[in-house]
Every structure is written in structure tokens, then in C-alpha cells.
Amino acid sequence: MRNANPDWFANSARLNWSHEIYPLTERMLSLKGQPPLRQLDDLAGKRIGTIHGYHYPSLEYLWSGNRSERVTEARFDLLPKSLEKRLSDVAIVTELTYVWWARGHAQEAASFKIHPLVVSSQPTMCALSQRSPVKLDQLNRAIDRLHKSGRLKTLMSHYLWQE
Length: 163
Prior knowledge:
It is a single chain. The protein is of the alpha/beta class. It is built from six helices and seven strands; from the N terminus they run βββαβαβααββαα. The strands form two sheets. Strands 4-3-5-2-6 form a five-stranded mixed beta sheet. It has a two-stranded antiparallel sheet with strand order 1-7. The model has no long low-confidence stretch (mean pLDDT 92).
């Protein structure tokens, strides 16, 4: 399954969208030893690692006002490397991607910390084409059952950042 949100697709009106599955939350990552980041203004003066092609509306005021620098990387795995090499001070990561990466790179991940600051949190859903053999109401009922039973929360707890 791929993370999806109607705001991310130009053709979203032509698709059927399910109920929310889980939130996709972006937080700040840094090397350990950095003071906690709790508000966006804490990023002033920092070089912020980002992914090429991604937009971060909540941080545009920092970049447009030259209050911080955007350091763009081609893909996620280059963000920790940029931090290690001190090319950036912090990096924007999704909880899901970071936790998945950290599981496979435990030794490397031990030198990083996730900050409490939430850069963004957006709902993710399933997109269905008009011709999908799966009916939207069936999919929504299944998603609702997963939420009500707690099974989705249990599954997702393995992939979300825990303070």
C-alpha cells in the first residue's frame, strides 16, 4: 500500500477516496545531543534536510525570510547521511519511514533522535479508480472494522515513533 491523500494528486476528483487509514506525521530528526525542537521558530538558523519535490508549507516562512536554509536530498536514506556529515542540522522525516529505516539500521539510528515537533500530519487513505473491482463502501467498512477492533492501532504502533 502506498501513502495517499487527495491533496497530493492532480486527478484526485476522478478517484474514490476511502476513510482515513492512519495519519502520516512528519517530525524533525537530528543527531543526539541537540536541544529539543518544540516549535517551528526553533528551526531558525538551522540547515533543514528535505526530500526533493516535497513541499513543506509550514516552513516556507523560514526559507522565504532567509531565517533557515533548505538542504534538498534526492531520497530519504540520504537525510541521515547529511546529518552525519554535518551538511544539515536537522531533517524532516515521516515517522513511518524513519521507524522502518531505523529497524534495519539500528547501529546507525542509535546516533539520532526524533524531536517532539510535528511539522505536519495528514490523513492517508486508499484511492480507488472508478473501475476498481473493490467497492468503496466495502473498503470503508473494512477500514472501520480495523479501527474499531484496535487491530490497525496495534499494527501501526510498531511503525510509529514513541517518546
